[in-house]
TrEMBL record:
Catalysed reaction equations from the record: a di-trans,poly-cis-dolichyl phosphate + UDP-alpha-D-glucose = a di-trans,poly-cis-dolichyl beta-D-glucosyl phosphate + UDP
Gene Ontology terms: biological process: polysaccharide biosynthetic process; protein N-linked glycosylation
Name of this protein: dolichyl-phosphate beta-glucosyltransferase
Family matches, as InterPro entries: DPG_synthase (IPR035518), Glyco_trans_2-like (IPR001173), GtrA_DPMS_TM (IPR007267), Nucleotide-diphossugar_trans (IPR029044)
Record organism: Streptomyces qaidamensis
Family: Belongs to the glycosyltransferase 2 family.
Length: 460
């Protein structure tokens, strides 16, 4: 649960508003490089599937990655023959570069992409984008590694895919199951803020986008897919793997140093149901207690390790103070992020300063316990010192949790402002655009729009 009341940059999650007839709800990007042979059958098959099964207006965008064969001519021919197909030419290679360029320029509220070989069964496309249309999720990915997925590919690619995702889980704590499946979708409002934070322009683009989205607390929906490997794939496995590992190192370092402004991806306070007040239910108390206990156990072990190390070359009081100081900074940072769910660097200095005050109280408890022990016996055993410190730390821990919850990370809630009423032209003079603007802001059910449902004179 976020404990700050900042409005966030992203709007609250909601069902997409109704769009004018002919405006595409979905823009499917197909990045290509020298695909003169496969491009036409791929696009025609995709268009036939969408026209037959997709209940909303759509667009297919061919993103040509500086092809040197006849791919640009094939793309232009398809765009001339099929109204729902457009083409976008880039003079530089890179799948990430193509997706960033097309997604940034698209007016569709839901953006997707798929590989030109159509290895993924197209029946997964509607389940992929439905959570984004409804407002349930921010991004959606196809997963070849889900239990219910049905995949046909060789052992080499299977091993590489699973090994890569294990690396992501171990190094970047990624929780999504498949980073590199060429079958993904994102809401345009999310892409507008997320894409400028993604540096990679190649194959690592997908992974970087997903890791940043997950770390920012965005919801990623996974769809099990049926997938058949393309034996004629032109992907260079060794080079791609090397670039991906470099990307993992770069993103991991950026996350560790806190240089990424992930707070830009915050939703408004109150969008998360855990932000709401529920009568007779302490907000997040059980989860906070569990998180605090886990952090506390790890901090205590860290503290004892530090104390034992400092005790080698200094007295007990000095060793206790140094160990508490170092572990207190780590403890405050861990509780800030893991227990109380505060993201971003805003207020971090103030939280650490307040944490040091709490540290001072803990220092007084533990130092007083050591002073009492030294007064009782002139040369206490090291094991006795540790036992007394453990007992004193337990008391300090209870007090620390209460102070953290009530003072350092209080549950600050602000009532959301009431939505402004739409202007009424019956009582107040208004411009024609006023009513249109208020209508666009209203959240209503998205009505299906099919090409054959619109007037023949409408331009699609």
């Amino acid at each position: 649960m976020r404990t700050d009341s900042s409005p966030g940059t992203l709007p609250a999650r909601e069902h997409l508003p109704a769009a004018p007839a002919g405006t595409p709800v979905l823009d499917v990007v197909v990045p290509v490089y020298n695909e003169e042979k496969d491009l036409q059958p791929c696009v025609r098959r995709l268009h036939e599937h969408l026209d037959r099964t997709f209940p909303y207006a759509f667009r297919i965008t061919i993103a040509d990655n500086a092809s040197t064969d006849t791919t640009p001519q094939v793309a232009r021919q398809l765009a001339a023959q099929i109204p729902e197909v457009t083409t976008f030419r880039l003079e530089q290679k890179g799948r990430g570069r193509a997706l960033r360029a097309v997604w940034s320029a698209s007016d569709a509220p839901v953006l997707a992409y798929m590989d030109v070989d159509l290895s993924t069964d197209l029946n997964a496309l509607l389940p992929l984008v439905a959570p984004l249309i409804s407002g349930h999720s921010d991004l959606a990915i196809g997963s070849r590694l889900a239990r219910s997925s049905r995949v046909v590919r060789g052992p080499k690619r299977e091993f590489i895919s699973r090994a890569y995702n294990l690396i992501l889980r171990g190094s970047l704590q990624a929780r999504f199951s498949d980073a590199q499946c060429g079958f993904k979708a994102i809401r345009r409002d999310v892409a507008r803020i997320l894409l400028p934070l993604v540096e990679d322009t190649g194959w690592f683009f997908d992974t970087e986008m997903l890791v940043l989205a997950e770390r920012a607390g965005l919801r990623i929906h996974e769809v099990p897919v049926d997938w058949v490997d393309d034996p004629d794939s032109t992907v260079h496995i060794v080079k791609t793997a090397t670039d991906d590992l470099k990307g993992v190192w770069r993103v991991g370092r950026a996350l560790a140093t806190g240089s990424l402004p992930l707070d830009r991806l915050a939703r408004p306070f109150g969008d998360d149901p855990r932000d709401r007040d529920i009568e007779d239910v302490p907000t997040g108390l059980a989860r906070q207690l569990v998180g605090f206990c886990v952090v506390g156990v790890l901090s205590t072990l860290f503290y004892l390790l530090l104390y034992s190390g400092f005790r080698v070359f200094t007295g007990s009081q000095t060793a206790n103070a140094l160990a508490l100081l170092v572990s207190a900074v780590a403890n405050t940072a861990a509780n800030r992020r893991l227990t109380f769910g505060v993201r971003g660097r805003g207020g971090a200095v103030r939280h650490q300063a307040q944490g040091l005050v709490v540290f001072g109280i803990g220092l007084a408890l533990t130092s007083g316990s050591l002073a009492a022990l030294n007064a009782a016996t002139s040369e206490p055993a090291h094991s006795t010192e540790l036992a007394v410190l453990v007992a004193a730390n337990l008391a300090a821990t209870v007090l620390r949790f209460l102070l953290f919850r009530a003072w350092v990370f209080p549950d600050r809630r602000e009532d959301a402002p009431a939505p402004a009423a739409a202007p009424s032209c019956d009582t107040t003079p208004c411009r024609a655009g006023d009513v249109a603007d208020s209508w666009r802001d209203a959240t209503v059910q998205l009505l299906p729009v099919r090409p054959h449902d619109t007037d023949a004179r409408d331009l699609r």
